[in-house]
Structures are given as structure tokens and as C-alpha cells.
Amino acid sequence: MVIWHYGASENANKVNGINSTIWQIAKYQAKSGNDVYLMVNTKLKSKNIEKAKEYGIHLIRIKFYKFLRNKYILPDIVHFHSVFIPHQLLYAYCFRKIKIPFIITPNGGIDPNVLKRNKIKKLIFSTIFEKMKFKNASAIVAVLPQEVEEIKHYLPKYNGRIASISNPVESSVLKSASWENNFQRIIITYMGRFDVLHKGIDILFEVAKKLPEFEFHLYGSRDKKTSKLFDKMLLTAGKNVFIHEPIYGVEKGKILAESTIYFQTSRWEAFGISVAEALFTGLPVFITQTMKIADLIKNNDLGVVLSGNVGEIAMKIKEELIQRERLKNYSINASCFALKNFQPETIAIQYIQLYKLLINEFN
């Protein structure tokens, strides 16, 4: 089967949950014998092409005039990731015309909180273009069951399939990492973009001020939209807050294993790749109830779900850190659950099964 993915960066290590997800899915779809392409619009660097080759993936810079002249091996199915990407609209229209099915994984892109950012622009774009792309999709895939209702609300008259398939974690480099029960030095870790509003970095900083006896270590990259606000916050941050560059692979696993808890205060979140990675290593996770993965954490006893109130969050963290046996139970449950549900091989196969079903229906 020839599969095209559209929505990844040409750099596998870009700090972006969607990018990480696409590369992992593509890698294991290629391993299972499929011909997998990542479509990008940017100039390719040799190191990124080599990385794709290691994964068995074709990394191509797609150019529309070459596409029209059939300069590429046409796919059996196309998988669009994320939303509100103008190039996708053009290709979605073309694939529909030449009778090639495509699916969309919005990855939280139609969350009401996301739609509120640049509200007028998104409303216009959505009404004229984006909803048409969705209507022509053979399937729309939610990354958690809670996202299914958002899809139905966004497109109430959609006639295609709506499925739910989790995002994967890079288990191959995390499998040797295991939570070390570090309580001698309390290290509270966050990994991800420093998008102050989306990721709730301001909430995290305020919690850190109320817990000066604990260390808060943040690993990630700046967000262009909120970079100035982040700089302003750093001026008044407590001495117990430490900012680090993003980390990858085995080093990421080591840091997670050495941490006491994983902490994330996103105001909204489609999935939370770093949360899933923490679960995989058995690191107890503490996340706010505004994240969609919160129900999964709570219902399966994998960690602690917090309110949005800074004072209550700080108090709850202190209370839970005393309950060592409870934290160990969270750890055992988390690693078992992640091993069963977030393996990239499993996720890749689930998508392959969906692709085959859609191709048969489409023809």
C-alpha cells in the first residue's frame, strides 16, 4: 500500500506532538511493508532525508506543478494531520477529483479553545474552506474518545466514518527507562512547547512559587506567539524554576525516570504526547482536568487530575507526595496501560486496518 502523510515537519525532532506522532506512525507503517511518504513544503536538508531513510520513509518536498504532471507515485490513501493548513485544501480537492480517498486526524484542531484563537479568521476560513475538506474525507479520526463529540459538533451532517485511535509514543527509546522513585530530591518535570496560554505555563510558574522547596524543570522550545510573555514571566520566576532545551530519545527517558512526578497544566490539550511518554516510563503524572486525557488518567488510576486553581494544585501536590504507596500504584498502572495502548506498532496497525477498509469502500 502506498501511503502519503501530510502535516509533519521535515525534522523528526521538532518539538511538536503532531510531528512526533506522524513520524512514529509512518515509521511503523513502513516497517510492516508499506510504501510510506511524508509530504512537506519546505526545503529538505540532507540530515532529515537520512533520518527518514533510517525509518524506511520517503521524505519528499511536494510541488504542485509536479503533482499535476504525475511526477510522483500516486498514493492509495492520503492521511492529513492537523487543520487550517491552506496547502491541504488544494491537495484534498485534487485527491477527491482523481478518486483517491483521504482521512483527517485533526489532533485537537477543532477544540473550542483553539477555534477562539484568531476567532474571526478561523470562522471565515472554516466556513468557506475547511468544512468542505472535512465533508469530503472518507474518515475523521479522534485521538481520544472525548474528541469525537467535538468532531460531531463541528460537522453535524458528516456522513463518513468517525474513528478513535490514540497517538503513539516512541517506545523503542523509552523501554529501558523506568521510574526510580526519586523522593530525596523532589523534581517536578514538564516537557513541551512554552506556549504560555495553551500549555498553561503561567499556571505552572505560579504553582512553583507556592512550592519553593521543590524543583520545577521545564524542557522545551519557545512559542513565537507568547515568547515575550514568557520572557516577562521569567523575570519574576522563583529560583526553583529551571528552563532547559528540548531533549530527545534515551536522554528524555533518563530525565523522566529520574523525576519525581510529571506535571502539566494545559488549558486545553488534544492528547499530550509527553504525558503518554511519562506514563510509559511509570512516572506518576499530575495534570489539570482541562486536558482531554484527564478522564483516561482518572478512570484507569494512572495519576492525579487537578483543578485549575493554583492554591488547590499546590496543596494537592504536597498531599500526594506523602502517599508513596499510592504513587507506586500509579506508576505500575501507568506503565502497564501505556505498554498496552500507546505502542506505535499497535497504532500503525490500527490505521492500516482503517485505510484498507476505506479503500475497499471507496472503490
Write up this protein:
It is a single chain. Helix content is about 50%, strand content about 15%. It has helices at about 15-30, 45-55, 65-70, 85-95, 110-115, 120-135, 145-155, 170-175, 200-210, 225-235, 250-260, 275-280, 295-300, 310-320, 325-340, 345-360, and strands at about 1-5, 35-40, 60, 75-80, 100-105, 140, 160-165, 185-190, 215-220, 240-245, 260-265, 285-290, 305. Strand 2 (about 35-40), helix 2 and strand 3 form a beta-alpha-beta unit.
Keywords:
Rossmann fold; seven-stranded parallel β-sheet; 48% helix; six-stranded parallel β-sheet; 363 residues; alpha/beta; 2 domains
Strand content: 15-25%
Question: Which regions contain 5 or more consecutive residues with pLDDT less than 50?
Answer: none
Number of strands: 13
Rg value: 21 Å
Envelope shape:
globular
Biggest sheet strand order reads 3-2-1-4-5-6-7
CATH architecture of the largest domain: 3-Layer(aba) Sandwich
Q: Helices and strands: which structural class?
A: alpha/beta
Q: Helical region count?
A: 16
Q: Sheet bearing the most strands, described?
A: 7 strands, parallel
Note the run of SSEs as H and E: EHEHEHEHEHHEHEHEHEHEHEHEHEHHH
CATH class of the largest domain: Alpha Beta
Helix content: 40-55%
What oligomerization state is this entry in?
single chain
> How would you name the CATH homologous superfamily of the largest domain?
Glycogen Phosphorylase B
Mean pLDDT: 92
Q: Kindly report the CATH topology of the largest domain.
A: Rossmann fold
Q: Cα distance, first to last residue?
A: 15 Å
What is the total number of structural domains? 2
